[in-house]
Amino acid sequence: MYVGIDGCRGGWLVAIIDQEASLHHCMIRSLNELQSIPVKLALIDIPLHFADTSYRICEVAAQALLGVKRASIFFTPHRAAVYAATYAEANRLNRLYTDKGVSKQTWNICAKIREANQFLGDHPDYSIREAHPELCFYYLNQRQPLLSKKSTPQGAADRLGLIARHAESYPQVIENTLKITKRKDVKVDDVIDATILAIRASDTNLQCVPENRPFDKQDVILY
User: What is the C-alpha separation between 41 and 138, in angstroms, rounded?
Assistant: First the structure.
């Protein structure tokens, strides 16, 4: 099975494409629940590695690809900042190690980054790699970034249109998932993002940034 994983308020939204190319979704509270899902490849929209003394090369390259939509790519802080107790402490530590601050948006996902890092350490053989939904849509949109904001109705429609080109039935599956989940736990774009990650995980023509770099390198984002 091929899996796409996106963080959501209730935990993690998981999209699964099985051997018959059928799409399913589920919400898990913890990444440890992934152990019950056998996968060929899972793509997750969360950093799996940290900055060292400067921004990660893959994130700089990803921003360059997305151009005007580059703000959708956050820069991962230094490990010490991710594990800081407060936002102020995270800012101080990240400036100490990288000479850069930490945005509030990035700080808000640090708990997810810590959870993903813990899962990676506890399950080194689980086939999970870092990816980014907007890069995946960029690839399916003939290497052009989608300019609409994903959280808007137009943004959702644009992304569902690209998903439908891949599999006509998938938008209906997404709609069904939204009917049985609560928006306080799962947003529309969480389901869409997890789905596009699963779609790309199932494709034999995966790409990476930076280009021409071995996929097994740490400083790579797949799409």
Answer: 20
Measured CA angle at 198 (ends 33, 126), to 5 deg: 45
Q: Do 89 and 96 form a contact (C-beta atoms < 8 A)? A: no
| Residue 42 bridge partners (DSSP) | 3, 128
Neighbour-count burial for 55-70, b at 16+ CB within 10 Å, e otherwise: ebebbebbbebbeebe
Residue 45 CA to residue 131 CA, distance in Å, equals: 5
What does the domain layout of the chain look like in residue ranges?
2-49+125-209
Query: What would the two tokens of residue 97 be?
Result: 């190690």
pLDDT at 217: 65
* Contact assessment for residue 81 and residue 94, using Cβ atoms and an 8 Å cutoff: yes
Mean pLDDT for 126-154 is 96
% of the chain beyond a pLDDT of 70? 98
| Model confidence pTM above 0.85 | yes
Dihedral (C-alpha) 138, 64, 62, 54: value to the nearest 10 degrees? -170
**Which of 171, 152, 155 has the alpha carbon at shortest distance from 163?**
171
